[in-house]
Structures are given as C-alpha cells and as structure tokens.
Design brief:
Layout: H1 3-10, H2 12-26, H3 33-45, H4 50-65, H5 72-87, E1 101-106, H6 113-126, E2 131-136, H7 141-154, E3 157-159, H8 167-181, E4 185-190, H9 198-214, E5 221-227, H10 232-245, E6 249-253, H11 263-271, E7 275-278
Parallel strand pairs: 1-4, 1-5, 2-3, 2-4, 5-6, 6-7
Helix pairs in contact: 2-3, 3-4, 6-7, 8-9, 10-11
C-alpha cells in the first residue's frame, strides 16, 4: 500500500465522522438558520474550537445571504476552502540550520511520544541522516528501555544515563556526542510530565537552557506530541507547554483513532502552531 493510500485509510474515521454528518444535515434540505445551527454543533463537537467554528459559521451565513451558496455541493466546497485557509500553507517537519539539528520533544504521558520519536528517527535515517536519541526521560527506567528498542530498530545511536539522573545532562551529552561524531540530528526524549505540575515545566526550561549552552540557537524544533483522541484537552496542553517553553510544531498522534479531527484546526487557529507530523497507524511508516 502506498503512502497516500495509507494516509487515506488512516483518516477514514475522521473523514466519515465530519463529512458524513455534514452531508446528513444539508443534503436534500434547505440551507437556513436551522441547518446552519445544526452544522455549527457538528463543528463544535468535532473539536474544531469556538474561534474556528465561529469564523466558518459567520462566513457561511454571509455567503448564503448573498446567494453564493444554495446547495450541499457548494457547502462542501466552501468548507474545504475555509479549512485550508485556517491551516494556511503546509509547514511539515524539515531540517534546516547548521548541524546537528536538535529536536526537543515534549508531551504528557500516554500520547505516543517515544513511538513518534522512533518513527521520526527511522524516517530521517532512511533519508540518509545520522541520528542520536537522548534518553532524557530519566524518571522511568521503562522509558529508557523503550527508547533503546527504537534506537536499535531504526539504526539510531543513543545517549543514556542511569535512571534518576539529571535529564538536562543527558541532553547536553547527546548534543556534544552529535557534534563530536558528525551526526545530523539529535532527538531529545523527555518525561511525560503532567502539564499541570509546574516544577516539571521548570525542568523542561532547564533542559532547553542546557541545550542552548551546548549549541547556541538550539533546540531548532520544540515538538509537542499530543493525542488527537483527547480533543480539547490537547488544546489546553498545547497552550500550557507553549506558554512555558515555546512550541514550534505539533505532532498529532492517533488521528486514525478518532472521528473528531477538528483539533488540528483549533490548535492552528488559536495558537498559530503548525502541525508538523500526524500519526495515522501503528506502523513505522505511519507518520
């Protein structure tokens, strides 16, 4: 199965959940205040968020009033245009700057952070880049072991310390190792810190400062991993992490497991953080 076929298959639930419901509201019915109100409810319950929803609804009312939109096919084309306008130009994950390119990966427990790191490392290595993983989640021995498995599977190198050691020191050593070995990319794993616990946010700030000492201008990407199935909670996490350390991109996991894909639009509209990567399956290539 090719990449686009896998992507299409992975997004089936989201597509049916949103477009299928929109079709049920508008097909064969008059476009009036009642159908527009029902459409608004669909957008809100698809985790689109209020700002994005109100922009779409206000624009739709205006176009219906002016006679530009009269049937479902026109509504569907309008919705596609509005969604693309919110997302803006594609901003995928890409390497730039001098080497090594440092990626600081953050996110709460259970979002698929280590798996995302493993998939990303695998992809970069397949593209011919040298990669080192930093096991800076030193709170859980299992996290270090999981990262080692991904390093072995992908062919990446790994820098690790003993469980319970200073996470910032691991990140520093990984950047120094990449510089010394002439590697292209450092991906730093961090603990799945609960976004409501401020001391853990302070620790993330420390890791970021130490990385900057090892390499001025780094990290070049601060990637927040969020779980698409958690809906508006993902938006709250994005706000919290962005306020604490500044997030430059989002990796949205488990998008194949939700009929509510609207969170992509809520994050972009409310925080203007681009979605760099989406996870649409368990396979190593499903990123």
């Amino acid at each position: 199965m090719g990449f686009f076929d896998r992507l299409k298959e992975g997004l089936t639930k989201t597509r049916r959940g949103l477009i299928g419901r929109v079709e049920d509201v508008f097909k064969g019915r008059k476009i009036d205040d009642q159908t527009i109100d029902e459409f608004e409810e669909i957008l809100i319950t698809s985790d689109m968020g209020m700002p994005a929803t109100m922009q779409i609804i206000d624009d739709l009312r205006e176009q219906v009033k002016s006679g530009k939109i009269r049937d479902y096919d026109q509504v569907k084309a309008f919705l596609k245009d509005e969604m693309l306008a919110i997302l803006g130009l594609p901003q995928p994950f890409a390497l730039y700057q001098e080497r090594p390119f440092v990626v600081l990966t953050v996110g709460v427990n259970g979002v698929g952070k280590t798996t995302t790191i493993g998939k990303l490392a695998s992809r970069l290595i397949n593209e011919g880049h040298g990669v080192v993983l930093a096991a800076s989640d030193t709170f859980r021995a299992a996290a270090i072991e999981q990262l080692e498995i991904w390093a072995e599977r992908s062919g990446a190198q790994i820098v690790r310390h003993q469980s319970g050691s200073d996470p910032a020191a691991v990140a520093f050593d990984a950047v120094e190792a990449a510089k010394g070995r002439g590697l292209d990319v450092v991906i730093v794993d961090t603990a799945g810190r609960l976004h409501t616990k401020m001391p853990l946010m302070e620790e993330l700030k420390k890791i970021k400062r130490v990385i900057q000492k090892a390499m001025p201008g780094a990290p070049h990407e601060t990637l927040l991993v969020v779980d698409a199935t958690t809906g508006q909670n993902a938006l709250r996490q994005a706000k919290m992490f962005n306020d604490a350390i500044g997030v430059s991109g989002i990796a949205l996991t488990k998008l194949d497991g939700t009929a509510k894909g609207g969170i992509v639009f809520a994050i972009k509209k409310e925080l203007n953080i681009p979605v760099r990567l989406i996870g649409v399956g368990e396979g190593v290539d499903d990123l």
